[in-house]
Amino acid sequence: MTYSMDLRERVVRACDEKRGSREHIAKLYGVSTAWIRRLLQRRRELGTIAPRPHGGGRRAKITGKKLERLKRLVEQQPDATLEELRDRCGVDASIMAVHRALQRLESRLKKSRSTPASKTGRTSKRRGKRGGGGRGVST
Q: Does pTM top 0.85 for this prediction?
């Protein structure tokens, strides 16, 4: 998680002004003591407390208009499989790319049964009499 420059500056200022131990400052700002140690080390070695640039990674295959189309497809048919959504969306992407796109949309696929629901009725013959078994009040 990348912390804001504002938070970084407040933590460094608190450390420089010796407003308490690192443990106290960490608790006060909701960060770890290890993060404070690394932040101060970064300032000492590089002269900056700014976060490092993002390390990269693959770009999302489904973005923009394709992502909006995927959202509409899910709304139209929430029980479609990831493969069906990918094919209907018309993107050259993996099933996992569709899954990640749905996560970004915070969308959930509705699971539909592939088989009919099982019977819920009795499967064995009932024994004994119905009712209270003759324990009622006699008149």
A: no
DSSP states of 24-63? HHHHHHT--HHHHHHHHHHHHHHS--SPPPP---PPPSS-
| Dihedral (CA of 92, 96, 100, 106) sign | positive
Instruction: Find the helix or strand (DSSP H, E) in which 134 lies.
Output: none
User: Torsion over CA of 72, 74, 80 and 85, rounded to 10 degrees?
Assistant: 60
Nearest to 97 by CA among 83, 76, 108, 77: 83
Question: What's CA 10's distance to the chain center, in Å?
Answer: 30
3-state SS assignment for residue 21:
coil
Query: What are 81-114's pLDDT values in tens digits?
Result: 999 999 998 889 999 999 999 998 887 666 655 6
Instruction: For tokens 């696929």, name the residue.
Output: 109
